[in-house]
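MODEL INPUT / OUTPUT PAIR
PAIR INDEX: 1
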Amino acid sequence: MGVNVGAELSIGEYLRIAPAILSKNEYQRKRVKSSGTYELLRKDLIEGCVMPPIILAVTSAYGSELENLVRRAIIEQDSFTDWASIFAFIERAAQDGELLILDGLQRTLTIEGIGTDKDGGISKEKISEFFGHKIRVEIYVGLSKTGILYRMLTLNTGQTPMSFRHQLEILYYDYIDNNALPDGISILKEVDEKRARGVGRYKYADVVDMFYAYSTGTPMPYDKQALVGELREINFLESYRYKADADDMQHLLEVYNHLIKIIDSRAGDWTAESQEDGGLIRPFGSNVCSILARPQPMAGFGAECKRLIKVGAVPEISTIDAAIEELRFSEDPSTSLNQLLLILDQIAKKAKRIGDAQRAYFQFAFRAMLLPSSDAYLDLSKCWLKGQEDFEMMY
């Protein structure tokens, strides 16, 4: 549900709201480095060439107040007369930084660069003329998050399309706030352009993968085509809309981080054997953190947590969290973890879809580790082998 408002603005008018969108939306991508395509775009904008409309959307920050107004506009259609109130919400969203760019980010960044003459070489007369050029803007008002994501996926086909994982980060932007996370846990988003290294550091997209696995009960990832189809029916993730008192994603991350810390502490100073010492050429990871802070084990963990709760093996995630304290190695940690790397290497050599196979394996391994009736329950030596046995029976 939502309405689409079209407007023709001068570039000067657009630049009055553009900085708020770019500075307050932490999920925007970085400016694309200079290329022939964007150099041509810059010249066309300076000359006043007609551009496709920039597509914006008001976020869901205004709740029922805006929803009721949009619902009236849809029901009343041509007889609706309170467009001034909708325009006022758009102006308010622009001031509050509650506008998302669905399509046209690089155009906006290029316009901003010209307006501030970042690259130099533009006369004052040209800049003044540039500010007067007209551009078209379309603003979606009253869309749900799923509606915003659907349009983002279908609109985003330009020279620099936003990555699928980046789009998922935006969908879940209010699920996890770094400031609300316990000490020692930090989330790196795609726009941070950093690598997640060390205990407690995770890529946001991998956390989203884990939550999807928990939500759906399967470790397999959604691809873009499947998600677009689901969103078209507007039934995707309806049960998992953000609520202020619902912190399943954060709780799941905290429990998983607890798991990694316990295994890391039990493993001592273990690191993977070097190739010179008989180790693998390309091991899945070099230490506990680099093995487990990846999407394959994270998705396997999320899916298995969901399954354990669904079948009644454990009542809630907190029960799993408490059990993690009891994890131990029944054999030498180095032998057990080197065995895990060997299993993952064997899967990589045999599987047609390596990532999917490793996700499935980790779900079986975590089942062996966390299912109370398992012969390998809480055993960090036996669970990896039991997981392999069950994986090979199924695949």
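PAIR INDEX: 2
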Amino acid sequence: MSNTVVFLLERRDVDARPGRGAPRLHLLTGGVDAPDRTRSILEPDALILATGAHDRVLPFPGWTLPGVYTAGAAQTLARTERVALGRRAVISGTGPFLLPVAESLSSVGTEVTEVLEANGIGTIARGWSAHPQRLLAQTGKARDLVHYGRHLLAHRIPIRGGQAVIRALGDSRVEGAVIARLDADWTRSPAPNARSRSTPSASDTVSPRRWNWPPRPAAPPSRSRVEPSSASTTTS
């Protein structure tokens, strides 16, 4: 139903117990604030609330530099406006949304140097194996995974697990990024061979995004925690 908003939810008397039955919906159809909107009532068997979503960006050093974009903004500009945000980009964060972002950016001519997934392969495997029913429910996504995998291979875009951007480098705009290895709980790895590395002049766009995917163990409170820039793109 287009141009329709719900202005009132009313509990029905059929079964008032929690979790039983959907509420009665009072609807208004017409232009926003128009005086001639029509009123109707809908009594559904079930109600699904789709409230929308937005990128969650967590502050990190250099996150306000020009050239740091949320993954959602970077993808929207690339897909709908065919705008390349920079010549080179690093995508950092966690979750499957990193794959279509990498595809969108590379499709408009941006060189995606790498995709950084904060969760390591072991963490992802343990997360899904703990909830096999969720994995079975997502078998239809296998085709999408194959599609994105082929695209990344064709454009030679590596995916690096257990790593994240922890700092954007530059003065007046992004000129590079500092990347660190992370433990399974997203704390910076103390291992001697897990030092941070910089990518000077390797990127002029950083796109961060943070997803709680898949389930992961809670971080011990006594250790410093690195939140993976919420999926960022750095472009140059």
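PAIR 2 NOTE: The two ends are 44 Å apart (CA to CA).
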